[in-house]
Specification:
The structure is a single chain. This protein is an alpha/beta fold and 258 residues long. It has a single domain, classed as 3-Layer(aba) Sandwich (Rossmann fold), CATH 3.40.50.720. 43% of the residues lie in helices and 17% in strands. It has nine helices and seven strands; from the N terminus they run αβαβαβαβαβααβααβ. The chain has a seven-stranded parallel β-sheet with strand order 3-2-1-4-5-6-7, with helices on both faces. Strand 1, helix 2 and strand 2 form a beta-alpha-beta unit. The longest helix has 22 residues. It is globular and about 50 Å long. The N terminus is likely disordered.
Amino acid sequence: MDTQRTAAAAPEQGERRAATERVVIMGGTSGIGLATAERELREGREVIVTGRDKGRLDAALERLGEGASGASLDAGDENAVKAFFESIGPIDHVVVAVTGNTAAGPFGSLALSDLRAATEGKLIAQAATAQAALKRLRPGGSLTFVTAGSSGAAIPGTAGLAAVNAAVEAMVPVLAVELAPTRVNAVSPGIVDTPWWDWLDADARRRTFDAYAEAAPAGRVGRPEDVAQAIGYLIASTFTTGVVLPVDGGSRLRPAGL
């Protein structure tokens, strides 16, 4: 992790900041995390991304270029997460975009082992990341979780997803008070076209996206860049904390099936 973005590389951002801010994006090698990394680089911040897959990490770093560095890391490994944060020095912002198993399906047949795995992969992994990051966050920095709109959508077949994401969101206002002056927020995306949906075949994915686009007031599914823009706002807005920001094209405004 020796590549850095300097003020000389981005003079317009250097004029706005006395020193380059550092952002860690856990789960930053694809989808929303990668789009966030690209946006933060454009804003003149140094970016450190992590991901489980070494090949995907290498591809992400090649795409991101100067100012980005990273580590191959399983966010579910608490000791590895602690060691990572101990190794990187002071940081200004942390975005926690890690996720786990889907735990989707009708509640009556939902395997509790899948629900446990989803809880470990998202709630526990995100909480462990936040804990490990605290000693490295500079005063006035920010911590931003990435949850999902399933937490409040009341869509049949998503009880497991809703439970896990709602648990993460429930921490936000508590941590915003407990960890102040560190700002703590979350974004809650609706359906966004990312590799997360690769568990569906192409036809099922298209049908899901088409149905969502028809129902959402915005008239389309989300793009990773939509969520990255919201995360960028939460990073930069020093007067915003304790917020769970929906980024769902307005889909929460319509009952399921309408």
